[in-house]
Design goal:
Layout: H1 30-50, H2 61-85, H3 94-136, H4 142-158, H5 162-175, H6 187-215, H7 233-251, H8 260-278, H9 286-333, H10 339-351
Helix pairs in contact: 1-2, 1-6, 1-7, 2-6, 2-9, 2-10, 3-4, 3-5, 3-6, 3-9, 4-8, 5-6, 6-7, 8-9, 9-10
Family: Belongs to the ROH1 family.
Protein name: Protein BPS1, chloroplastic
Subcellular location: Membrane
Length: 352
């Protein structure tokens, strides 16, 4: 399905991008008002739960897993809202469809970039396994191999992933479309676009934190201003302020990585390297034995965390893909079946 391309409108990421949705004086039935309020209250609660209890929790793999789980839940919430609105694809405005399809492609690209980076980080664990294997039976000639493995690990985790860097460009493009599309004659459409704005803001925020964590750079973080009229605005603003400050501080500290579990491994490796260089003189020392024990625990925690987060990213990818496929199927069939019903069918097929 092709449509004539419209000139790109200027973007105002720090203004009020949703000022024409539900303006003053617009009427919503009690039912529609209840639906949009429930959605926004749920979104606010999810954001509050995502706010870390401690500053040290920011950029841990466990917190990032929770963030990705929240994104999956939020996208499930918008599917449930569409079902409740009883808004079939046949009455969707072409602009809504264009924006949705364009955004879904961008988010799929971001997921691919994140999965590639997590897979790359997982490969670094192979170097650590080689180190630990050499320590299990440590003849003097194994020190050379151990040093080589430690050097390989350092080079691997400090290398740059161009796909991660590209995520920032994609996210900037998503921010530039936050003010689209505007709705004039459909109360249900206004509710849908208002809810989708919230989903988009939170999705961009979480993905930008991920990109900063993987790239080790906080310079491209963005503090979006959300109008106070949204019931989730206060929770979002608080979460954004808290997390962005900690990410920026972590990224300017000169550490090799922003990920906390990876930082823990790096600290141990730095302690271990001079001991390995000393060779057999340090093999019986308590410090050496402590390093081995600490490395074994930290490496396992890091590897397990990456595996779990990778599964969550893949799950989010499947949610995006199933939603996009469902919409395209509905458009091709000219069906009046609402999007979420088909999404659920496709999701069930994927699960099988």
């Amino acid at each position: 399905m092709s449509r004539p391309q419209e000139p790109q409108r200027p973007s105002f990421p720090f203004g009020n991008p949703f000022r024409n949705i539900l303006p003053k004086g617009s009427y919503l039935s009690p039912r529609l008002l209840a639906l949009v309020n429930k959605f926004e209250e749920t979104l606010a609660e999810r954001l509050r739960k995502l706010t870390p209890k401690d500053r040290e929790d920011v950029l841990t793999l466990s917190w990032m897993r929770c963030a990705m789980e929240s994104l999956c839940d939020i996208h499930a919430d918008i599917k449930a809202l569409i079902t409740a609105l009883e808004l079939p694809v046949s009455v969707w405005d072409d602009k809504w469809i264009d924006v949705y399809l364009d955004n879904s492609v961008k988010l799929l690209d971001i997921c691919i970039g994140f999965s590639a980076e997590l897979s790359r980080l997982n490969q670094s664990h192979l170097f650590l396994r080689c180190v630990l294997h050499n320590f299990d039976s440590m003849p003097s000639d194994q020190f050379i191999r151990t040093r080589s493995s430690l050097d390989g690990w350092k080079q691997h985790i400090t290398s740059k992933n161009l796909r991660t860097e590209n995520c920032f460009t994609i996210l900037d493009n998503l921010v530039a479309t936050l003010d689209e599309p505007k709705v004039k004659n459909s109360s249900k459409g206004k509710v849908l676009m208002r809810a989708m704005y919230g989903v988009k803001v939170v999705t961009v925020f979480v993905c930008r934190i991920f990109a900063a964590a993987f790239s080790g750079s906080g310079t491209k973080l963005m503090d979006l201003q959300v109008p106070e009229k949204y019931l989730w605005a206060e929770a979002y603003t608080g979460l954004q302020a808290f997390v962005n400050v900690e990410v920026r501080n972590s990224c300017i500290s000169g550490r090799v990585t922003a990920l906390k579990e990876l930082q823990a491994v790096d600290i141990i490796v730095k302690k271990m390297y001079p001991l390995v260089e000393d060779g057999t003189n340090s093999i019986e020392s308590e410090e050496f034995k402590d390093c081995i024990s600490d490395l074994r625990k930290s490496a396992a925690k890091f590897s397990d965390g990456v595996d779990i987060l990778l599964k969550e990213v893949d799950g989010f990818f499947q949610i995006l893909l199933s939603g996009r496929d469902a919409l395209l199927c509905s458009l091709r069939a000219g069906s009046d079946v609402s999007i979420p019903m088909q999404m659920n069918n496709i999701t069930e097929q994927v699960a099988r």
